[in-house]
Amino acid sequence: MTDLRAILQRGGADLALLLAMGLFLGAVGPFGSEHLAPRQAYAYWVLCIVGGGLIGILIDETVGRRAGVFWRRLLVTAVLMTPPTALWVLVSDRLVVGAPIVASRYWPLLWQVFLISVPVMAVRALVWRRPSAVVETRVVVEPPLPEAEAAFRRRLSAKRRGARLIAVEADDHYLRVHTDAGAEMVTLRFAVALDELSGAHGFQTHRSWWVAAEAVEGVRWRRGGGELRLAGGLAAPVSRTHAPTVKAAGWF
Questions:
Q1: Which of 55, 56, 54, 32 has the alpha carbon at shortest distance from 44?
Q2: Which of 115, 159, 176, 211 lies deepest, with the highest CB count within 10 Å?
Q3: How far is it, in rounded angstroms, from Cα 112 to Cα 243?
Q4: Non-local CB neighbours of 87 within 8 Å, separated by 6+ positions
């Protein structure tokens, strides 16, 4: 029941949006429609935009959503909806002013329909576009055991050996070790570092990043992956592959 109500509410909002855009175009009168009587101009554009918009929504929610990113999805939807919408425009013209439905009017109409379809579907997409979710939580963990990081810490200089470990970042054949006493470059393979830190309170977040759990201060999720905000203003990426590990640690 709740799902049906949500569908009806969204459908009503889509219809209201299309009506508003149809009335706007009726007032503006593009593509020669300014010569129509006001009543005919409004009726024509409301029919065109509502009917064409419903065609576009159907295509967008079935084929378009598979296109991925915003602009690619918009372009795919606009291109696919143009041929049937152009036919609907001819039908609307016939209903409003009695114009004949002939092929010679159809082909030149395709470009005009495409030019209108792009902004109409873009406005709808922007209205329903969800902002990136920002989740602010804290994970409480026990301090790491002294021996858990001992082997790895012996690779650091005396200045940073006893500092708070924040993250380890792979950089070509080196590692950049981030601590609260600054960063330090170490010659070591990332796989070896992960092995030496396997007992520490932390986790791999990316193919080239390991972070200390107690250094995480916030997380921003985007399309399956994300970014961790760490102590000291540092940011570490979270790939799709390692996102489940981060979420399992309490950052959801």
A1: 32
A2: 211
A3: 45
A4: 106
For the chain, 252 residues long, give each residue's pLDDT as a single digit of tens: 445 676 778 888 888 988 998 898 888 888 878 788 889 999 999 999 999 989 989 998 888 878 777 888 899 999 999 999 999 999 998 999 888 888 888 998 899 899 999 999 898 888 877 654 444 444 444 444 456 788 888 899 988 888 889 999 998 889 999 999 999 999 999 999 999 888 888 889 999 999 998 889 888 887 667 888 998 889 999 998 888 888 887 765
> Would you kindly state where each structural domain of the chain is located, as residue ranges?
2-128, 134-248
The topology under which CATH files domain 134-248 is OB fold (Dihydrolipoamide Acetyltransferase, E2P) (2.40.50)
